[in-house]
Amino acid sequence: MMRADAKKNYDHILAVARELLTGGGADASLRDIARKAGVGDGTLYRHFPTREALLEALLRNGFDALKERAHALETSNEPDAALVTWLREVVAMAHHYSGAIAAMVAAIADENSALHASCVTMKAAGTRLLVRAQSEGVARSDMDGTDLFAMVGALAWIGDQPSLAPRADHLFDIISSAILTDKVRSPA
Question: What pTM was estimated for this model as a whole?
Answer without folding.
Answer: 0.81
